[in-house]
User: What shape does this take?
Amino acid sequence: MAMYNDKVIDHFTNPHNVGELLNPDGEGTYGSPVCGDMMKISIKVENDVITDARFKTFGCGSAIASSSVATDLIIGKTVEEALKVTNRDVLDELGGLPAIKIHCSVLADHAIRSAIYDYAKKTGKTYVGLEGFDPGADEGDTHHGCDMEHKGCEKE
Ligand code: FES
Assistant: This one.
């Protein structure tokens, strides 16, 4: 337990934005190729601003803390701004995760991108931040937005 800081423990114990939105404007599920855990994110978008987001994580405590912070970070942002949120921002906001848990924050990063991808597909919109993103891509192509060391990640 000593390896997790208080903020991570707080977000794990009292996660924000848990659940699923009714009639979401976009939703995305991502499964980590590293550990097999899954995350589902649903978003509401009004006038190109993400007004709400919810997550369901079938994963570890770090994934829950990461999704809690990640959903907090994107609510109130425009879609393009939200696409600029990377797992590094999530890690910064959490005050860091143990190196072998960094892929858990990547899970949140990709699930958000997948939900926005779904929104873009449904509405016919294009976003610069989605260029090159393929929600169905295999590991190796899917580290978009992740510029951390991939310790514990099979890409390395
Ligand atoms: S998300 Fe799978 S170990 Fe953290």
Observations:
- DSSP finds five helices and three strands in the chain.
- Residues 139-156 have pLDDT under 50 and may be disordered.
- The CA atoms of residues 12 and 64 lie 6 Å apart.
